[in-house]
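Intended use. Records like the one below are meant for learning the mapping from a protein sequence to its folded structure. Do not use them to infer anything beyond what is encoded.
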Amino acid sequence: MKKYSLFLIIVFIIILTMASCRKVSHNGDLDGQWQLQTVSLADGSSMSVRGIYYDFMLHTAQMRGGGPVCTGNMAYDKKKSIFIEFPVNKASQFNRYGLCAADFTEADKGVTILFTVRRITSKEMTLVTSSGRILDFKKF
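Structure written out for the chain above:
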């Protein structure tokens, strides 16, 4: 009986230790991989996009597809805005991601961008840039 009790205590401690080390998402519906569907320009025209993905997890954002991966540090204000700082990129590198140089602000190192969240659910998201571009995503 003592061995059985000791075994249960050890198993319980191991489970607690494993569960406490896991990073838990605090970004709600934003976290995950999003596929860019369309980009609507300020003049009303729009373009379809293929093979472009935005990934969000914890404090990191990543854009990939059609070229080098761009990774940045992210701050998310729940359902209002997403601020991303790309410390090693230039604004011209983001054209393939549906963005333009006017969307970015020069930083001490690299560039920053602020997205306004127009709508976000567990399956769809719409972001707006400072230049007026509207980006529509589906969760992938």
